[in-house]
Amino acid sequence: MNFEIRESGVAEEFDNLKTPSENVQLISFRKASAIARYYQSAIVIGADTIVVYNGKIFGKPENEQDAFSALQTLSGQTHQVYTGFTLFDRPSNQSVSSVEITNVTFRKLTKEEIWEYVRSGAPMDKAGAYGIQDDYGAVFVERIEGCFYNVVGFPLTKFYLLMKQFQEQLEL
Predict the structure, then answer these.
(1) What distance, in Å, lies between the first and last C-alpha atoms of the chain?
(2) 21 vs 127: CA distance, rounded Å
(3) Does residue 86 contact residue 95 with C-beta atoms inside 8 Å?
(4) Angle between the 64-74 and 111-119 helix axes, to the nearest 10 degrees?
(5) HSE on the CB side for 161, CA within 13 Å?
(6) How confident is the model at residue 16 (pLDDT cuts 50, 70, 90)?
(7) 80 and 20 Cβ atoms separated by less than 8 Å
(8) Spatial distance between the Cα atoms of 38 and 32, rounded to a whole number of angstroms
(9) Is 143 exposed, middle or buried, given 0-12, 13-18 or 19+ CB atoms closer than 10 A?
(10) How confident is the model at residue 27, as a pLDDT?
(11) Cβ–Cβ contacts within 10 Å for residue 153, how many?
């Protein structure tokens, strides 16, 4: 199989009337369908990840202050990581979407730790302004309940199982 990574150009805008699950699935569908139009025969995968705490959605930070504020808010708290993904088949135009939700608890962070991490640049392209795979991101996390790979960025087991089911459905 050949794989290709393409930027969809789809805005990651959230609809306040939709749940976090609905938002990430809708955005992942928009991304997949935007790319699918360029292919005659392919399965296109779109995905979107957000962090949610107390009903507030944390996407990628807009600047360093935004990153600091997000991390300060998450400090000592449990939040949810939502990843929505869509499989879109060409030429049938059939699709299937799903979502994985993982609870993540941060230990209490100091302002110095947060600023050092923010100034490293690492959190600037990540939902919730952290990556569990980063040096500091890894030591910020006290506990995870659910799929670790979802927090890293993509829920591999759920994706694998849905992909198998989708391929079977396409063969019918």
Answers:
(1) 21
(2) 15
(3) yes
(4) 140
(5) 6
(6) confident
(7) yes
(8) 11
(9) exposed
(10) 97
(11) 16
Residues in the chain: 172
The predicted model scores a pTM of 0.93
Q: Among this protein's residues, is 48 annotated catalytic?
A: yes
Tens of pLDDT, residue by residue over 134-156, are 878 889 999 999 999 999 989 99
CATH of segment(s) 20-167: 3.90.950.10
- Which one of 48, 66, 89, 125 is the catalytic residue? 48
Which two tokens mark 100? 């994985």
- Nearest CA among 12, 13, 3 for reference residue 44: 3
Question: How would you class 14 by CB atoms within 10 Å of its CB: exposed for 0-12, middle for 13-18, buried for 19 or more?
Answer: middle
pLDDT confidence of residue 151:
94
Neighbouring C-alpha atoms within 13 Å toward the C-beta of 27: 22
Distance CA 34, CA 127 (A): 22
At 52-95, the pLDDT tens digits run: 999 999 989 999 999 999 999 999 999 999 999 999 999 999 99
pLDDT value, residue 26: 97
